[in-house]
C-alpha cells in the first residue's frame, strides 16, 4: 500500500502532521483518494487504498522512513527552503526531501531504508542529474549495519568536499548523521574508512577536521590468509593462481619489491598488490623482448578482471585508478632495470626473480 506525507486537499498541498480527519484528501500524482493515518505512537501519513496503483507513490514506507524524512528536513533547513516529497513528473520520480538553494543547484534527498538494486540507484541518480539536481543518497539502519564492501560503495558512495569518497547514513533514534569518509583500499585488498558523527549541516560543510590514521600493512597475515584461501579453494584466489601457473609462478611467492603502501579507490577486488603480481608475471612470460602499448593495455585489463576489479560504480569509474596503477608499476620496473622505454614500447632488459627462486 503506497504511503506519503503530503496530499492534496481542495487543490492545495497539506502535510499529514497538520491534517485533520474526515477530509477528502487525494494523491498529488494520480489524484486518487488517500486516507489519513494518525495514531498516538505512529507518525502521521497518508495511504492509498488497497489495490490502487500509483505511478510514483508505489511503495509502502516504514515508520523509520517516515520519521527520518522529517528529521532530515530539519537537518538541512539552513541550506535553503526544504520541502517534503517533491514530485518530478518529467522523470517520474519523487524526492523524499527537496532543498531549494539560492543561486545553486537544488538538492534531492533520497532516504533509502529498503533494498534497492544498483540499476535503480543509477536510473534515479541519472534522472536527477538530467534536471541539474544533485542527489544525496542517505542510508537507513539496514545499510548502517552492513560491513563496508563493494555492494555499498558501488551504489551509494559519492565524493564530498572535505570528506573524499564517502557514504552517508541517518540514525533515526539518535537523530544524527553518520558519515563514513575517505573510503579507500590498501594494496592487500582491505577496505578502510573513517567514521564521524555530525550534529548539524555546518559540520558536514566544514569537512573532516581530524588527521586520518596511519596505514600499517601486515604482510605475514596477508600471506597466511592467501595460503588458507588456497587450501579451502576460494574461487577468487584460485582464479589468480590459474593465471600465474602458466608463467611458472605461485601466488605466495610475490617478490618483495612489488610491495607497496599505495592506496587506491576501492575498486581493485583482491587488491593492488596481486594486480601488480599478475601484470609482472605475464609481462615477463611473453615470448618477445619488446612489449607494445596494445599488449600492455590488454594485460592491464585482463589482470584487473582476474583480481575481481570493479570497473564502474554509480558515481565513479576505475579508469583513473587503473591509469595510476599502470604508471606506478612501469616506473618501478624501469627504475629497477627490468624494462626500458623505446618510443611508445618497452624493452625487456632482464627478468625479475620471485621469492624462492635461485
From TrEMBL:
Domain Competence protein CoiA nuclease-like: 61-185
Occurrences of domain Competence protein CoiA-like N-terminal (ranges): 22-57
Entries under Pfam families matching the protein: CoiA_N (PF25164), CoiA_nuc (PF06054)
Entry superkingdom: Bacteria
Protein name: Competence protein CoiA
